[in-house]
Amino acid sequence: YCFITFVDPSSATRFFEFVNCFDHRIILHGNELDIKFGSKGLRLPPISNKLLLSLSMGACRNIYISLPEFSYKQKYITDRNMTISAQVLLPDEKTIRNDISQKFGELEKINYINDGHCCWVNFLDIGAAIAFMESLVKTPRDFHAAFDNRYLGLVIKYGKDRCANNFKVVS
């Protein structure tokens, strides 16, 4: 069994109707899934106002980390006068995973773009992603000090959550 919790009740209803009312099947690892509303959902605590506010301001489970534009654009990479590009590096996957998961919570996956100038960090829990961003925004000095300034100078913001994409219909 698997239980999915939706933050927005209308999203749960839309998902349920999509699968059951429009006769779309969901296949996972070759098995057709049976989609139902679970009784446990009726006993879940209400969603906090803090979470709802964060969601309305763009929060999601996905954090985007990138080199600043000046450090990876071709004109700066080839210009010998631009030494700053050598000073700003994106940490590798193992470092990001260790840093973030130990302090904020478990990660689902980290996706790097082919040229390595940015990545998306997917948290398992949206609350952990929000805590990460709040720490960065509210106490940036402490945030960066906790990670030996590895993320100083990088662009860090909420990314687009893969789960927010429209359903993929395969016929």
Secondary structure: elements and pairs:
Layout: H1 9-20, E1 27-28, E2 31-32, H2 49-56, E3 62-66, H3 74-78, H4 93-103, E4 107-112, E5 118-123, H5 126-138, H6 140-146, E6 155-158
Antiparallel strand pairs: 1-2, 3-5, 3-6, 4-5
Helix pairs in contact: 5-6
Shape from CA axes? globular
Structural class: alpha+beta
Q: Count the E strands.
A: 6
Question: Compute the gyration radius: what is it?
Answer: 20 Å
Largest sheet: spatial strand order: 4-5-3-6
- String of helices and strands: HEEHEHHEEHHE
N- to C-terminal separation?
Answer: 25 Å
Portion of residues in beta strands equals 5-15%
Report the uncertain regions: none
- The helix content is 25-40%
Number of helices: 6
Question: How would you state the average pLDDT, rounded?
Answer: 80
Sheet having the most strands:
4 strands, antiparallel
Question: What would you note in describing this structure?
Answer:
It is a single chain. By secondary structure, this protein is an alpha+beta fold. Helix content is about 35%, strand content about 15%. It has helices at about 10-20, 50-55, 75-80, 95-105, 125-140, 140-145, and strands at about 25-30, 30, 60-65, 105-110, 120-125, 155-160. Strands 4-5-3-6 form a four-stranded antiparallel sheet. Strands 1-2 form a two-stranded antiparallel ribbon. Strand 4 (about 105-110) and strand 5 form a beta hairpin. Helix 5 (about 125-140) packs across helix 6. The longest helix has 13 residues, at about 125-140. The radius of gyration is 20 Å and the shape is globular.
